TrEMBL record:
Lineage: Bacteria, Pseudomonadati, Pseudomonadota, Alphaproteobacteria, Sphingomonadales
Modified residues (4-aspartylphosphate): 51
Species the sequence originates in: Sphingomonas citri
Name of the protein: Response regulator transcription factor
Domain OmpR/PhoB-type intervals: 128-226
Keyword Transcription regulation belongs to the record: yes
């Protein structure tokens, strides 16, 4: 998993990072809430391990703001504060789980995997995989997709088209290939149905200020930027 640890205790964060890296995870550390929000905007993570008490922006505010911005990834709140009222506050802010530290890295890993399973996300093999292409994430198992953490409202054909482009991100797919794989036809219709769906998908992928992630190559086809 690609994880973000948000923890202002430098020694604790370093030790937890080391343990999680030893468990074969990619780990980034932020030591305050403001940097955590910036990290979530800049990069894509599978889950966040979030301290409850943080400088600048506290943990409850971080998860609340992240949810308001469309961030859907699992958040495990980790804190020395273990009273029920504090746990309820963290969970109501948008955290998916809450544990009191110190907690072994193996338990944290198990909890994160359980959260991912509960959402229908899998890290290895199968149609339930999370597909990633730049800032776009597609979950075929959930039939859901996001860009920059923003949930995308896609029709069935739009979703199928995006999923197929994401599976082959960085490579061009011809119109004939898309017709076969998305529409299920073994011939290329005389209409421009692929081009129409690509235009519709582009409109939904691009919020103001965002670049078009789909590249068109004349006489070849379409490619989703990796």
């Amino acid at each position: 998993m690609k994880l973000l640890i948000v923890e202002d205790d430098e020694d604790y964060a370093a030790a937890l990072r080391e343990d999680l890296v030893a468990l074969d995870h990619q780990v980034t550390v932020a030591d305050n809430g403001r940097d955590a929000l910036l990290a979530l905007e800049r990069d894509r993570y599978d889950a966040v391990i979030l301290d409850r008490m943080l400088p600048q922006v506290d943990g409850a505010a971080v998860v609340r703001l992240a949810r308001e911005r469309g961030q859907t990834l699992p958040v495990l709140m980790l804190s020395a504060l273990g009273r029920s009222v504090e746990k309820v506050d963290g969970l109501e802010a948008g955290a998916d789980d809450y544990v009191v530290k110190p907690t072994p890295a193996s338990e944290i890993e198990a909890r994160l995997r359980a959260l991912l399973r509960a959402r229908g996300w899998q890290q290895q093999g199968g149609e339930g995989d999370t597909l990633r292409a730049g800032d776009i994430v597609v979950s075929p198992g959930q039939h859901r997709a996001w860009r920059n953490g923003r949930a995308l409202d896609l029709a069935k054909l739009e979703f199928g088209l995006l999923a197929e482009l994401a599976r082959h991100a960085g490579s061009y797919l011809t119109r004939a290939m898309l017709i076969e794989r998305v529409w299920g036809y073994d011939f290329e219709p005389s209409t421009n149905i692929v081009d129409v769906q690509v235009r519709s998908l582009r409109r939904k992928l691009c919020a103001p200020g965002e670049t078009d992630p789909i590249v068109t190559k004349r006489s070849v086809g379409y490619m989703l930027r990796a």
